[in-house]
Amino acid sequence: MNLYRVLWEAARANPHVPAIATQNESYTYAELITWAERLAPGFWRLGVKPGTRVVLLLRNRPTTFAVFWAVIALGAVVVPINPDQSRETLRRTLHDVEPQAIIYESLEGRGIAGLTGSERPVLVGVGADDADIEIGELPHLVKAQPEFRPHDAEPDDVALILYTTGTTGQPKGVPRTHLNTVSAAQAHVVQNCYEPRERILGVMPLSHTMGLHLYIAATLLGATYVVVRDLDPDQAAELIDRQRISALYQTPFWYYALLHSERAEKYEMRSIRKIGYAGAVMHENLIEACIDRFLPQVFKNHYGSTEVYTHTVGDVLARIPGSVGRAGVNSVVTIDGTDVPGTVGEVLVSLTSPESFGGYWNRPDLTRRQLDSGWYHTRDLGYQDAEGNFYIVGRIDDMIISGGEHILPQIVESVLANHPKVLEVAVAGEPDNRWGQMVVAYVVPRVAGLRVFELDAYCKQQSALSLWARPRKYVFVRQIPKSATGKILRRELTNLEGSL
Known about the structure:
By secondary structure, this protein is an alpha/beta fold. It contains 12 helices and 26 strands.
């Protein structure tokens, strides 16, 4: 279960197969492992040793993957971080992880050195003019290149730390061992029905659990990973067509952007055979649009987390509306405190899964809160039906309490989303002297001229909404704030002002 062994085996079995491809470049598995093993001794000279942390502030590009494997080969810990996050979040993350080195592209004048604290790491630039050393200079730090011998890491050694903010905005480090990472990638292959020599589109960065485990899964298969540097649906549509992509794995938000991109109609994109999604709910109309456009043989939905990766997997083509499927191949999932079908409770995932982490980086308080008696507390609310299918109905932290009644925003959103004049909607609670909280709906109209009385009258007719659950206030906005995976950022809703 040594993660570097995944690349080594792929290069041995498929030396001439393209490992990483872009719009203009392609590197075989033999070329990729050679590149990584030329960089590794240079990193060693910079003090990168087993257990030290190395931050990657890089977008998807061939260099990113060569650096990733070079650091893994040394037994060091890769910490991929999203370069687009706020300066303050980046500062807090760097102080928390205390890296030995940071590999980064230009931060557009923001200056990485001022964010690193008193123990300044070595700054390695990829086209950055304020670094200590450029990435291309690393091989020259070692005059004689001896035969490279990768560090023999143990399965329980930490290979990665993924930082996640979820919907709270507070960064928390999730250590992933070699065993965690390989097990999650193996499960991903099985659960998404991937086969050797797939051509997989890589859009999500390595800093996100979806992008990281999709890439390791592709390497396990000796597949070709075609990377998109930015979340550009137009470029993705072109790459799907020209590179004959066979498998997509993305968020519902991204599929929507792809199908509505300006260039989407120009390309057939008929090479797609397998699609999957995670990160958020995919509504029925988008599911139908994906089926009509791609005619997939396999269509999976994945419910998971950075902490465990796989919770459940569903077969969208099996048509169980609203379900996130059943427990994954490595998972044991239950509803806290009940075995009665249909009863809502917190979703718990067993820590016996080889995909499961052992606790947060530098956060014993959070570890105690979310890991208890052998279970990971997801903070998600859901239920299970008599056939074993799971359904997610909301987040404990999102619950609105109005007039003493507990209201799930997702229930209100699902009702309003069906109004023909509503394009998007998000619901949150707002402090209220009389009721404790009032339900507020933030609405992106589909057509101009939508009025509050229309929505209120519509809600009064819906049996799914109690008197307390009906919105008491509507705010018309141009867009709903979302994370990179398309999850609604409820903490930002109250800062919105009506703009229509």
